[in-house]
Design brief:
With about 180 residues, this protein is mainly beta. The chain has 2 helices and 10 strands, in the order βββαββββββαβ. The chain starts with 8 loop residues before the first strand and ends in a 12-residue tail after the last strand.
């Protein structure tokens, strides 16, 4: 993916009644509300990089309802690539092969039905992309409490041992384990 370069401008699509505090934009890019960004900084959480203001050019509404008169202000951030590594021996990655690269830990797999991190590799980031599952945002318990306490919207947090990614529905096929 190409990196999003300045000027940071976005068109938003509103689903439902209210704007979210957390938006997965594209690639590694995330948009967070200024309220989220300020609280994140104030509480000393770690793992987000950037914090660049985004100009919202246009808002379209999906579904019924009146068009919003304004949108919240957003900032562009990226979650860091952490040192934490997925523990292949104790995770449920169907079809996983040993990684050819010890640093990135990338491996091809067909589905995920829970994962765990290798002991001693996590350095305490509150939000990060672990080695071996770079596409999966992973958060600390402190981040989960932060989201709950501030009632931030548009986030669904799932414990890593219950996380499921199964695009081919392998788990539901006859004979699947």
């Amino acid at each position: 993916m190409r990196q999003w370069l300045p000027p940071y401008r976005a068109n938003l699509v509103l689903h439902g009644e209210a704007f979210g505090d957390f938006i997965v934009a594209s690639g590694d890019d995330l948009l967070i509300s200024e309220r989220f960004a300020q609280s994140f900084r104030d509480e000393g959480l770690t793992g987000l990089e950037g914090f660049h203001p985004v100009e919202v050019l246009r808002v379209r509404r999906r579904g019924r309802g009146s068009k919003p008169s304004s949108s919240p202000h957003y900032v562009l951030v990226r979650a860091c690539f952490g040192r934490a590594a997925v523990d292949l021996a104790h995770s449920h990655l169907q079809g996983a092969q040993p990684s050819a690269c010890e640093e990135c830990r990338y491996t091809h797999f067909e589905s995920i039905h829970g994962f765990t991190l290798e002991p001693g590799t996590w350095k305490g980031e509150d939000i990060f992309r672990p080695r071996g599952l770079q596409g999966v945002l992973t958060v600390s318990e402190r981040f989960e409490r932060f989201v709950t306490r501030h009632e931030f919207t548009h986030l669904r947090l799932t414990p890593s041992e219950k996380y499921v990614w199964d695009p081919h529905e392998l788990q539901s096929r006859p004979g699947a384990q």
